[in-house]
Amino acid sequence: MQKALEIYPKGCDKYKAMVYLIKYMPWHSAMSQVKNGEQYFMNDIEEISADYLIENVEEAYETWQNCLWKNEIDFRDFCRYILPYSIDREPIVKWRLYFKRKYAHLVRGIKDEKEAFRVVYEYLKNSFKVTNTKSPYELDVLMLDSIHGGNCRDRAIYMTYVMRSLGIAAVTDFTPFWANQGTNGHFWVSMVEKNGKIFTIGKNKTCYIDGSYEPCKYTIDERKYIYVVDSLKRICKVYRYTYDDVHKVPSNQLLNIPEFLHCSYALDVTSQYHNLTDKNVLLIKTNRNEPLYVCTYQQQFGWKPVGKAERLDDSHIDIGPMIHDNVVIVAAYEDGTVIPRSNPFLVCKGRMPIKLVPDKIRSQRVCLYRKYGLNSRWINRWGDLIGTRIETSNVKDFSRDVSCLYEVKNMPVEKISILFENYQLKRYLRFLPAKGKYPVPAEIDLIDKNNKMIQKNDYQLYAVGKDLVGDTIPLHWLRDRDPTTTFYKQFPYWIGIDIKRCKKMTKGLQVQLWNDCNRVAKGHNYELFYFDYDWHSLGQQRAVCDSLSYTNVPQNALLLLRDYTKGKEERVFIYKNGKQFWW
């Protein structure tokens, strides 16, 4: 390292940049080799040569000095957001000159840093595929370039490298896990402006996190629809991989420190993001001298720490800035186990958190339809069924002699059932989607006069479409009694049914739509819980229809419905105005 310091005159920018890099190198490490299937990491101060550091400083400084938006980036931000040679613990490689030559054409002539960020972001978002590389090891950024694909973390890190090679002050931000669904976290790239504000791409908002589901294409009458639909993945806390904001993590204390804090250079930057609430001082009596954490509920794992909590005194806990519309508890963490120290709080916009203390004196009756929240992805697929016609004809290709039996007018709920009592059926039926819509049926069944399903060998399905070649629609998936198997074709099609053998017994049609199988299912065994410093059972039930009814549920309680028969997805919810609201 002495060679790296001696090459520059003391006091010049390049010398200061080199001092900056060397000062924080001991806090960083990189994957150096794989032996017997295990990754080995070396500390950067031991692994990186002086020549590598010198080349890194020279290329980074030259890029900063010559970019057309140089005046938007001061020396401090240059050191923090352009100069670092790595992001996390990926293998160390020479990347600056390669990426600069490959992508410089994207920003040629651009004088505004935000515009440069936007152009590069949009280009890489479309070209770098989010996929599973199936690599069990940390990949270096040049390997990601050759694959040009990876998970969201790979893509965010790749984008950050590319942008820094072009002189854009880019950072990799992340959340340890989504606060309202799944088990994974999320990573994205952001730009840091001269004033310290964050700039990202999405919905024309300066600090919008690109973590939404597809927007809802259909208007739902929430007063009549039995489900509450959520269109966003929610985030509670945001962290950033930094180079200089470091803290020591004692190795002998790892079991008593949540995993998200094991990284010594992960900085909480939640306060820089949108939908923020900072009125988060909670009234919690505790005299224990122990570290406390704010936790959200993670699918399959229960309460998991997502941030630190600060004890102000024996009865007040500050959980720090958070993104609103989340449910949290305060807990201790010992030997890898979360120990609740509070009941849940709803963190809401523009108000103090709302404490959920179960009222065991005043109980309520609840009617439950799902064990997991419904997002707009499913509503958009189900909504594509609107306008679908069920027709009948004596001509197989429906070129003439066509009568309409039914047209879907309203938003369906997983399935539709149609009775033909007042209609004269012909030999063929067809399921005809509306023009420009592509609904996704999972099961198509004929119903007899006793509301029983007709045996599938009594009728035949066939598919017709402009771009169909052979059996590109796997029709057996529409007859396998599994609502998770289907096709997803983005071209005009229709499905015909030859009912010659069962015409007389056919009284109706049922279409089961592709869905997540989180609806209460007949024959499954369920148990309902409420939270009061721990989960307490409200009893088990075997579903006799597609809903469950409980009469002994405390008001103002956080609830959880578990299916013991099938499926792992489950979310906490509150019950209000006759509906489940998911958190």
Write the layout of secondary structure elements.
Elements: H1 2-6, H2 13-24, E1 29-35, E2 38-43, H3 44-47, H4 50-66, H5 75-81, H6 96-107, H7 113-127, E3 129-130, H8 141-147, E4 149-150, H9 152-165, E5 170-175, E6 186-192, E7 198-199, E8 229-230, E9 239-241, E10 266-268, E11 276-277, E12 281-283, E13 292-298, E14 302-313, E15 316-318, E16 322-323, E17 326-334, E18 337-340, E19 345-347, E20 354-355, E21 359-368, E22 374-375, H10 376-383, E23 389-393, E24 402-407, E25 415-419, E26 428-432, E27 441-447, E28 460-465, E29 493-498, E30 508-513, E31 525-531, E32 535-542, E33 548-555, E34 559-563, E35 572-576, E36 579-582
How many distinct domains? 4
Please, what is the average pLDDT? 89
Q: How far is the N terminus from the C terminus?
A: 51 Å
Largest sheet: 8 strands, antiparallel
Radius of gyration: 29 Å
The percentage of residues in β strands lies in 25-35%
Share of helix, binned: 10-25%
CATH architecture of the largest domain, by name, is: Roll
CATH topology term of the largest domain: C8orf32 fold
The unreliable regions are none
What's the shape? globular
* Count of discrete alpha- or pi-helical segments spanning 4 or more residues: 10
Question: What oligomeric state do these chains adopt?
Answer: single chain
Under CATH at level 1, the class of the largest domain stands as Alpha Beta
Number of DSSP strand runs? 36
Going by helix content, strand content and strand pairing, the class is alpha+beta
